[in-house]
Write a structure and sequence with these properties.
The chain has about 100 residues and is α/β, with parallel strands linked by helices. It is built from four helices and three strands. It has a three-stranded parallel β-sheet with strand order 1-2-3, with helices on one face. The model has no long low-confidence stretch (mean pLDDT about 85).
Length: about 100
């Protein structure tokens, strides 16, 4: 029930939580020992706003996971449209 309420409240929002590109960039800038092509795990990625932000900040790859398939379908469309299919792997983890 809790998940259903959360998902209903967030289904039409661009992000499913607080933050913005500025916050993502700041957090990413604090990571000092990354390889040139880091492997990033984005858990609870939702529709992937931060996933797309992160892929634009790095030459690495991202595995983006979430429990809500409709959010992931949205992200898959973004990934395909932006040409990131080779660098972002979207995975559904059933609840």
């Amino acid at each position: 029930m809790e998940n259903e309420v959360f998902l209903e409240l967030h289904k039409d929002l661009p992000r499913q939580g607080p933050a913005d590109i500025k916050s993502t960039r700041k957090a990413f800038s604090l990571l000092k020992s990354l390889s040139k092509e880091p492997k990033i795990l984005d858990t609870g990625c939702g529709t992937g706003m931060q996933t797309i932000d992160l892929i634009n900040l790095t030459s690495g790859t991202i595995v983006a996971v979430d429990i809500h398939q409709p959010f992931l379908e949205n992200l898959k469309q973004k990934v395909k449209q932006k040409g990131f299919s080779a660098r972002i792997n979207v995975i559904h983890i059933p609840n």
